[in-house]
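Cross-check.
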Amino acid sequence: MRTRSIAKASERTHVLVFDSGDDVMPLLKSFAAKHALPSAHFTAIGALARVTLGYFDWTRKAYLEIPIEEQVEVVSLIGDVAHDADGKPQVHAHVVVGKRDGSAHGGHLLAATVRPTLELVLVESPAFLRRRYDPESGLALIDPQA
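Predicted model, tokenized:
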């Protein structure tokens, strides 16, 4: 395990309320870039008209897409914002959604369209976090020492 303390200064908290029809991931990434967030973590609840989940296939080193083309409740959405090697903010999020019958589906959040709202609380960290490419997994993982 590797660690790094990053909360030496006060943290700013932002509330983002997405409207029906909003595409979550590009808007969240745009917000992070526009506000020059050094890094952040977030949670959200709400509902979606459709969502694409991802399941990471270790042998293929790629996400398998799991589209859900129906109205769902966001039971839990959590994630973080960190910067890639080029200094651009990258959003990493996982979500659990509930269907009408009470069944739940979860995974990496690849895409989501809001209906009617998504309420996201984002807590900004005072220090930059960077992602570094990990050749073993094929993923860009947070490097707390960067």
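Strands lie at 13-19, 39-57, 62-68, 72-83, 89-98, 104-125, 130-134, 139-143. Residues 24-34 form the longest helix (11 residues). Passed to J.P. for a second look.
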